[in-house]
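Notes from the 1:1 (GR / supervisor)

We went over the backlog. Supervisor wanted to see one worked example end to end before approving the batch request, so GR pasted a single chain during the call. The sequence is below; no edits were made to it. Supervisor asked that the structure be written out right there so they could see what the output format looks like.
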Amino acid sequence: MKVESDSFFPAGKETKKFAEDRNLMIIFFLNSWYDKAVQKSEAIIKIYNKDLFAWIYKGLSKMAQKKSQEAINSFNQVVLIDPNLLSGHMGLGQVYLQINDPEKALRAFKKATEINPSYSPAYFALGDVYYQTKQEEKATQSYKKVIELSPKF
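Structure output shown during the call:
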């Protein structure tokens, strides 16, 4: 299959099938059909291993299934493909929180704030980690940053 390198989307007649598979992957995930979402994501990855949507939804599905190491592997792949994509770092942070590794969660969420200093969900997540680790002043600072960035919060 020919793939347009900059678009992460196949060229030619396979485009419709690829788009359908992506949409089904998302629908399966939203319906909590995580096994089916993983199957679709893996089928897409087999065709094009740099498809960020497939890696992200595979990671989210594995996280929902409490398969933490597989989720970490998926989000690490996202970061490898695009180190500046917030979703990879935010996903890693959430998995690390799930397995009670606040140090790695902090690193992931801090990286997200470095990539986009105006992304309030990253500061919210940082605040949660600080709160969980009894660093209330840092938690408060992070939550204040959320309010500063998103006044209608």
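Supervisor's comment: The longest strand covers residues 3-4.
Batch request approved.
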